[in-house]
Write a structure and sequence with these properties.
The strands form two sheets. This protein has a two-stranded antiparallel sheet with strand order 1-2. It has a two-stranded parallel sheet with strand order 3-4. By secondary structure, it is mainly alpha-helical. α1 crosses α5. The protein is built from ten helices and four strands; from the N terminus they run ααββαααβαβαααα. The longest helix is centred in the N-terminal third of the chain and has 26 residues. α6 links the parallel β3 and β4.
């Protein structure tokens, strides 16, 4: 695949000073995981009533199963199953193919997405060790196969429930900007920066609600589709990498 050039984001988190390397490594190695476990357990216990209510509503409005499971690339590209509450129906055409997202995504599903309530089950992914509270969002496997070697560095840490890209525009920014923010984050992982991202995530999810969806689309555009549309990969490259993605998840 031809090499693609992307812009470079500033190497600080919204003006935060660069932390000493030793302090960063100590937080990542000894404190980040215990904090993740504590936060995930606390969220599950404190919001257990919310889990039950959302699960019942999903079952009534969208049917079974209540949970949506999908393979996502995690640390070092290892594939894991991501848990979410369902936001779409399983409506299919006469040939058995799923209908387009904008048809299957219901008003109730849009509400879950706009408030990020569909992501509540990811707390169990954090408990399992597949994810962290803060880190680059786990993209689709078919997105990962389009990453350059530089972009694959975002897989050097666990994916997160939220991240720097999510508080910097979420789906309202370009793919290049998203990945640049992910690469920026992994260069300065500190407790203070993680706390800032948590607070800004809550603000954006429940107050500001910017960048929930990509302009003109009900769901975010896949990286491969974006690169093909912009002429940054050829159709042959696109098709070959889509086949590679299917092989990775055993389809």
């Amino acid at each position: 695949m031809a090499e693609r050039q992307f812009t470079t984001a500033p190497l600080s988190i919204h003006g935060a000073p660069r932390a000493p390397k030793g302090r960063v490594q100590m937080y990542k190695k000894f404190f980040k995981r215990p904090i993740d476990i504590f936060c995930a357990l606390a969220a599950i216990i404190v919001f257990s009533w919310l889990y039950i209510i959302v699960a019942i509503l999903v079952r009534v409005k969208l049917g079974s199963p209540v949970l949506f499971k999908q393979e996502r690339p995690g640390l070092n590209g290892k594939i894991f199953k991501l848990y979410k509450f369902r936001t779409m129906t399983d409506e299919r055409d006469e040939e058995g193919n799923l209908l387009p997202d904008d048809v299957r995504l219901t008003k109730f599903g849009r509400l879950l997405r706009s408030t990020s309530l569909d992501e509540l089950p990811e707390a169990f992914n954090i408990l399992k060790g597949d994810m962290s509270v803060i880190g680059p969002r786990p993209q689709l496997v078919r997105d990962m196969v389009f990453f350059t070697d530089e972009q694959m560095k975002r897989q050097s840490v666990k994916p997160g429930l939220s991240g720097l890209a999510q508080i910097s525009g979420r789906n309202g920014i370009t793919w290049e900007e998203k990945i640049d923010f992910d690469l920026e984050y992994i260069k300065n992982i500190t407790f203070i920066n993680d706390c800032k991202i948590v607070f800004k995530t809550v603000w954006q999810a429940f107050v500001k609600q910017d960048g929930i969806s990509q302009e003109g689309m009900d769901t975010a555009e896949d990286l491969g589709d974006y690169l093909l549309r912009c002429g940054k990969v050829s159709e042959d490259q696109y098709n070959d990498l889509q086949i590679k993605a299917k092989e990775l998840i055993g389809v």
